[in-house]
């Protein structure tokens, strides 16, 4: 079959296997030519390894100088009679193929990160492939829900303000239309549930499990990703439900740092730049900011995608300096270029003028949409989109 992009709202319903392959290859190519990671970790566990920051971190650590072996956990869907499968499913396949060709170990574990079964499978994989220990644990999960332990019920995360309603715009990628929205404040229950899904609890569960199984190597580090953003985004992000969960994650990083001190290790919440990913396009009332930010950072030559952020994190910060550079709240800041005062002044000017009829000219809507399509393997040079793709090649029975 020929595979075309199908978008519903801000969700991609199709992905192109060979476009995903090409996107992985391009990221590998980038890290091979970038400033290399010296003194990097050799055995890395990545929770949320199939897309966005997790995939970029995996590529950077394998091909960007550290020559790391990796175990990657993700929750992805393969092709079936009804669907072509998710981009992350294909990213996993082609990452593994490339890593193994380069002589590296790359283990993919597909399943629910919050479950005990997956924790047990990972411990077993660490025994089998890493001689029982890991040097770095990356927590890069973005999820809308978490199954309650031993239950058929779920906690659902919501993206809402806290206290007051917030108005803003979202651009539907499906038909390129600007939708003005007003989001009501979250209820206490919604705040608590979002914290359960996106806060630090599961990160801590993972580190405890690894400690209890003697799976942390001496000097082991762990990181999880956060976002802070400028003041104009605080009502919907930092002061809202997601921000509440991120603050919990920051607090968890301090608790984990104490636990890891027993191993001469460290834990950091790493604050990244706002970027187009499968997860971030869901954030309502955030699009005008990101459109303006893409435009200004590209004009200034400071724009980075996930892969540039991750390569810089490891080559310039996490493994480059002792002590690791952190801010007054002990956060590792990769949003330094985003929050540059000149950049923010210009972004603010653009956002103030942006509306339903001029967003594509004032902001980098073309770049935003292109980035979204690329995440799903579309719009990538060198891929023959007219060719038939035999999806049975990727089905488990083969
Ligand atoms: P993404 O959607 O590209 O990746 C999420 C990963 O989590 C995927 O590998 C997915 O398979 C995995 N996952 C989701 N639910 C799972 C489950 N139940 N079990 C196993 N795996 C599961 O998201 P992105 O944007 O890379 O987000 C990663 C982290 O980075 C999140 O904590 C996010 O808040 C944070 N972040 C994102 C920013 C952005 O602008 N995209 C900015 C700053 C931080």
UniProtKB/TrEMBL annotation:
Pfam families: Eno-Rase_FAD_bd (PF07055), Eno-Rase_NADH_b (PF12242), Enoyl_reductase (PF12241)
Active site: 237 (proton donor)
Site location (Plays an important role in discriminating NADH against NADPH): 76
Ranges for domain Trans-2-enoyl-CoA reductase-like NAD(P)H binding: 3-81
Catalytic EC class: oxidoreductase
Any one Gene Ontology molecular-function term assigned to this protein's record: trans-2-enoyl-CoA reductase (NADH) activity
InterPro entries, per the entry: Eno_Rdtase_FAD-bd_dom (IPR024906), Enoyl-CoA_Rdtase_cat_dom (IPR024910), FabV-like_NADH_b (IPR050048), NAD(P)-bd_dom_sf (IPR036291), Trans-2-enoyl-CoA_reductase (IPR010758)
Residue ranges occupied by any Enoyl reductase FAD binding domain in the UniProt entry: 326-389
Binding site for substrate: 227
EC number(s) per entry: 1.3.1.9
Residues that coordinate or bind NAD(+): 48-53, 75-76, 112-113, 141-142, 246, 275-277
Record-level GO BP terms: fatty acid biosynthetic process
Function: Involved in the final reduction of the elongation cycle of fatty acid synthesis (FAS II). Catalyzes the reduction of a carbon-carbon double bond in an enoyl moiety that is covalently linked to an acyl carrier protein (ACP).
Assigned protein family: Belongs to the TER reductase family.
PANTHER family: ENOYL-[ACYL-CARRIER-PROTEIN] REDUCTASE [NADH] (PTHR37480:SF1)
Subunit structure: Monomer.
Protein name: Enoyl-[acyl-carrier-protein] reductase [NADH]
Organism per entry: Vibrio cincinnatiensis DSM 19608
Upper taxonomic lineage: Bacteria, Pseudomonadati, Pseudomonadota, Gammaproteobacteria, Vibrionales
